[in-house]
Amino acid sequence: MRSTDSNATQTARVKELPLQSVIQNMHGYGVAKCRALLLKQKFFKLHERYAHAASKESYAAARLQRLQGQLTHQQEELAEAATKAAQYAERIASLKHEINEKKADVVRSSSRQHMLHQQLAALKAEAQELQGQLETQVKRSANSNARFPFERSLKGFPA
After folding, report:
1. Calpha distance 34→10 (Å, rounded)
2. Is 112 exposed, middle or buried (0-12, 13-18, 19+ CB in 10 A)?
3. Can you give the pLDDT at residue 14?
4. C-alpha–C-alpha distance, residues 106 and 94, integer Å
5. How many Cβ atoms from other residues are within 10 Å of residue 29's Cβ?
6. Residues 6 or more apart from 25 whose CB is under 8 A from it?
7. In whole angstroms, what is the distance from residue 11 CA to residue 31 CA?
């Protein structure tokens, strides 16, 4: 019974090889040699899988290293951009403060200008009033001189 199990196992292993190869090998080498060929074939397939896996792992490691380099570079660029953004934000805040100060200056000078315009208008009104009073006095003086022409000549004398 043991030999039939052994033969069944050998038959199953032989089925993995191409039929032509099995036939040629069985005639020349016998069952032990076929078993050795099957083991060699399995070893070769395992070796191919290992080589393929190692190649994939090597490629993945190289890709990972490249991506890490890119990530580091992008992080540096991001840090520089953040620094510049902070500087720009500070400059913007400074400019806004200056603008607010200028607006306050404009408001102050505008109110000062308005006050000066009011004072100027009041002074003009006062000047017109004084001009009117002066003209009235000049007319009165002219009228009084016309009535009393000698008063002019008496101005230097004590009264």
Report:
1. 8
2. exposed
3. 46
4. 18
5. 13
6. 17, 33, 34, 37
7. 10
**Phi, psi angle pair for 16, to nearest 5°:** -70, -30
What's the one-letter identity of residue 65?
Answer: Q
| Spatial separation of the C-alpha atoms in residues 109 and 97, rounded to whole Å | 18
Structure tokens, 136: 């009235």
Distance CA 56, CA 45 (A): 16
Per-residue model confidence as pLDDT tens digits over 51-95: 999 999 999 999 999 999 999 999 999 999 999 999 999 999 999
Question: What is the torsion angle, in degrees rounded to the nearest 10, for the CA atoms of residue 42, residue 46, residue 52 and residue 55?
Answer: -140
The answer to whether 35 and 10 are in contact (CB under 8 A) is: yes
Length of the chain: 159
